[in-house]
């Protein structure tokens, strides 16, 4: 058996070599060298500051993408690109566009490349983007508590009432909860797939959504069925609390993504809807305990499990800088040192970015770590 498996190593190695040749030498490009370039540009985030749009875009395509012009609401506008020049495959850039945007109005941004290709992004309701530090960070933490902890705690307060309900009445309450969850599942999948269409095709956002959904569901089911029989009572309540905590983590990510993309009004709408929905989640956690007499410690344990599974609703700017800068080979001490130095530096944001790029020998390395520089500047309080 082992010898037969070893013989498979030769064809697998030959296949790997063939794929490496195709990727490295790109022989199919020689078939039609005069073909027009294929370009793609994705809008990753839009920050709204007084009189300014800060747009982060990422490029993809067979050739470097050159941003030639920018239109806002049908009119050509001046802009500043950082870093300047053509964008290599999967490279990112920040466009600073001076524009007197109006609070509450709809604005459309169109980016034209040198080949004439147009890529647009619509801001449905314009509102200033909150900063990720200082008072805004505290506000986001409070938003996370209002989004997850408060409504679920209100739902758990229904435990005495649920204990006095009959089987049919309890089934109705649980059916209401499950119905809301199914509706949100269908609606969220639709919204997620629609949002994935705006992401660069190379990232396969739609496929990633389905894979994460299936893996998460399969993991929870496997964990719940790991024993000899399905969980009941307190174990079932603990599994529900774990699942709801992970679900609420996703809700926090959705709200954070809406803030990051400049959709502040959408974020406020999502928070309101999630708060109403999350009250029924407390019903689902409390229902398995109604035929038992759980102690206060049991309730505290379920609450702790819920909090632990959803505690990363808000990521601080410093934590984001550490996460993003790992890909650039910077250690934790180096990142903290950069944050401390730039926090005390009199340089503006643009001057600090230029100083960051000057530390690299090759421009492509600086472009690769552009996200790291922006994250460190945000953590240092130089977001504007």
General description of the model:
The chain has helices at 2-7, 9-25, 135-156, 159-164, 167-197, 205-224, 233-260, 264-286, 296-309, 317-325, 332-344, 349-357, 363-368, 370-379; strands spanning 39-49, 52-61, 67-72, 75-77, 80-82, 92-98, 107-113, 118-123. It is α+β, with helices and mostly antiparallel strands and 384 residues long. The chain folds into 3 domains: 39-123, Immunoglobulin-like; 135-309, no CATH class; 317-379, no CATH class. The strands form 2 sheets. It has a 4-stranded antiparallel sheet, with no helix packed on it. A 4-stranded antiparallel sheet has the order 4-3-7-8, with no helix packed on it. A hairpin with a 4-residue loop joins strand 7 and strand 8. The mean pLDDT is 76.
Would you report the number of β strands?
8
Shape: globular
Could you list the spans in which at least 5 consecutive residues all have pLDDT below 50?
none
Q: Tell me about the largest β-sheet.
A: 4 strands, antiparallel
Q: Termini separation (Å)?
A: 64 Å
Topology:
Elements: H1 2-7, H2 9-25, E1 39-49, E2 52-61, E3 67-72, E4 75-77, E5 80-82, E6 92-98, E7 107-113, E8 118-123, H3 135-156, H4 159-164, H5 167-197, H6 205-224, H7 233-260, H8 264-286, H9 296-309, H10 317-325, H11 332-344, H12 349-357, H13 363-368, H14 370-379
Antiparallel strand pairs: 1-2, 2-6, 3-4, 3-7, 5-6, 7-8
Please give a quick description of this structure.
The protein has 384 residues and is α+β, with helices and mostly antiparallel strands. Helices cover 56% and strands 14% of the residues.
């Amino acid at each position: 058996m082992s010898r037969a498996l070893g013989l498979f190593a030769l064809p697998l190695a030959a296949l790997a070599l063939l794929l490496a040749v195709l990727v490295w030498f790109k022989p199919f490009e020689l078939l039609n060298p005069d073909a027009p370039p294929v370009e793609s540009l994705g809008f990753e985030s839009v920050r709204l500051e007084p009189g300014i749009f800060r747009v982060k875009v990422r490029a993809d395509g067979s050739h470097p993408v050159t941003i030639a012009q920018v239109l806002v609401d049908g009119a050509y506008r001046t802009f500043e690109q950082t870093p300047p020049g053509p964008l290599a495959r999967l490279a990112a850039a920040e466009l600073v566009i001076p524009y007197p945007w109006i609070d509450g109005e709809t604005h459309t941004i169109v980016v034209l490349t040198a080949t004439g290709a147009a890529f647009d992004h619509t801001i449905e309701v314009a509102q200033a983007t909150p900063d990720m530090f200082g008072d805004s960070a505290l506000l986001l933490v409070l938003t996370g508590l209002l989004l997850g902890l408060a409504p679920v705690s209100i739902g758990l307060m229904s435990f005495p009432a649920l204990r006095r309900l009959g089987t049919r009445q309890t089934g109705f309450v649980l059916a209401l909860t499950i119905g809301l969850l199914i509706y949100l599942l269908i609606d969220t999948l639709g919204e997620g797939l629609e949002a994935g269409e705006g992401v660069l095709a190379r990232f396969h956002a739609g496929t990633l959504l389905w894979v994460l959904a299936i893996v998460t569901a399969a993991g929870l089911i496997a964990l719940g069925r790991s024993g000899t029989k399905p969980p009941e009572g307190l174990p079932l309540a603990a599994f529900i609390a774990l699942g709801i905590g992970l679900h609420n983590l996703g809700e926090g990510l959705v709200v954070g993504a809406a803030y990051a993309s400049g959709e502040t009004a959408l974020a406020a709408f999502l928070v309101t809807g999630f708060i109403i929905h999350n009250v029924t989640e407390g019903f689902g956690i409390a229902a398995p305990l109604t035929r038992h007499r759980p102690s206060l410690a049991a309730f505290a344990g379920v609450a702790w499990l819920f909090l632990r599974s959803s505690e990363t609703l808000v990521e601080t700017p410093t934590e984001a800088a550490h996460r993003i800068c790992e890909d650039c080979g910077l250690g934790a001490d180096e990142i903290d040192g950069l944050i401390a130095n730039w926090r005390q530096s009199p340089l503006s944001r643009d001057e600090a970015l230029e100083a960051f790029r000057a530390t690299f020998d090759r421009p492509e390395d600086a472009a690769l770590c552009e996200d790291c520089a922006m994250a460190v500047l945000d953590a240092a309080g130089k977001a504007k």
